[in-house]
Amino acid sequence: MAVSKITMRTVESVPAGGVVWDTVVKGFGLRRHTTEGVFYLVRYRFGGKQTFFRIGRHGGVSRHGVSLTPDTARTEAKRLLGMVADGINPSEERQQERHKAKRLGEVETFKPVAERYLAKRKQAMKPRAFLETERHLLKHAEPLHPRRITEINGLAIAQLLGQIEMGSGPTACNRVRSSLSAFFKWATREHHIEANPAANTNKAEETGARDRVLTDAELREVWAALPQDHYGDIVRLLILTGQRREEIGSLGWSEVDLGKGLIVLSPERVKNKRKHQVPLSPQAKAVLERQLHRNDRDYIFGIGKGGFSGWSDCKARLDQTILERRGRKAKPLPAWRLHDLRRTAVTGMNELGVLPHIVETVVNHVDGHKAGVDGTYNRALYESETRLALEKWAQHVEVIVAS
Q: Which of 80, 119, 225, 309 could serve as a FRET partner for 55 with CA atoms 20 to 30 Å apart?
């Protein structure tokens, strides 16, 4: 058990199973779980009994809509310890809130209300527009699903949009924002909420189509700085497979066949609503083989009911690590997003001589060589060709990162 002021450096350096207690606020601490990341906690004594109360996971969002960092978690610890001083047991209060939420019923959480909205709008919307709205509300907005709709505020929406912009770019962010705003506007007319929490959030600045491709040297820097946790392994798979962030972040064991070395994504899980197969190179397969199987969930990465979350904070920490590895007075890596890794893989495979229609099959594109009549009728999976393409790309990445 270590004792020191809890900072970002503490979070990054604490080993699996390690516990650190803060020197600033007595009773405030953190612990790194083997697979679930770092959790903040507070220790107190109530009624003669010592209690360890979990504040939340680092990088997640607290019950009050605040992103958890060492400073915000320390502030929450002060509040909780103040409750104890006033004769209120935080643990009992949380239990009462859970019982109350259970009594209120599932209908007041975001997801069932969104599903009802989609059911009403389906006939009035064009199929493609409906599928996009459905993806925005049921996939992109998944962190909001368990929250009561009356408690979702502007801060929660802004944080969600920030994560989407960081991972998928400003255009995707603005489209999700529009879908959320339309949904919440409907919810106000249905008297679920009093005001639209998305109305006063900022639009992301769009600068046209991105063409950012990481150089070999930049790819090497990113790989070398990746942490040994779920986020690090997700990024490794994004580099090796060229798939979309949510496709890997929400990957389930039911979608993986390690024996065949294959990921199979159902139409509901992909952007173009077509079943997608991703052959696994030995390098990608090794990443999945070291993940733990958990009896309580099918999702491979992340914790809780959904897939991986906390993209924005993890990306910020990765950028900081890259900067620190560059040395004092160094400039940061030129601005990049996780989606740029997909473009980097596509570019890299083309440069290695992989045929364009095979590259498009790897990343499940339906434009370019697979557009029009050919895209409609030619549904060949090209499994052997895509496997060779991804193995060639993975070998190239292995040479780069080993340099």
A: 225
Total-model pTM:
0.55
In which residue are the tokens 């997909």 written?
A: 342
Q: Report the SS3 class of residue 295.
A: coil
Considering the domain architecture, whether residues 77 and 111 belong to the same structural domain is answered as: no
8 A C-beta contact, residue 352 and residue 393:
yes
Which residue, 83, 103, 123, sits at the end of a domain?
Answer: 103
- The answer to whether 308 and 250 have CB atoms below 8 angstroms apart is yes
Question: Which range, of 41-55, 99-113, 282-296, averages the lowest pLDDT?
Answer: 99-113
Are residues 272 and 398 part of one domain?
yes
Please report where in the chains the tokens 């039911």 appear, as a residue.
Answer: 254
Q: Is 123 left (phi over 0), alpha (psi -120 to 50) or beta?
A: alpha
pLDDT in tens, 83-99: 999 999 988 887 776 66
Q: Could you tell me if 245 and 352 lie in one domain?
A: yes
Q: What are the helix (H) ranges across 45-122?
A: 70-85, 90-104, 110-121
Domain range for residue 351?
216-402
Residues 273-324 have pLDDT tens digits of 889 999 999 999 999 999 999 888 899 998 877 889 878 888 989 999 999 9
Alpha-carbon distances of 238 from 193, 284, 296, 365, rounded to whole Å: 38, 9, 25, 16
Q: Is residue 177 domain-shared with residue 238, that is, in the same domain?
A: no
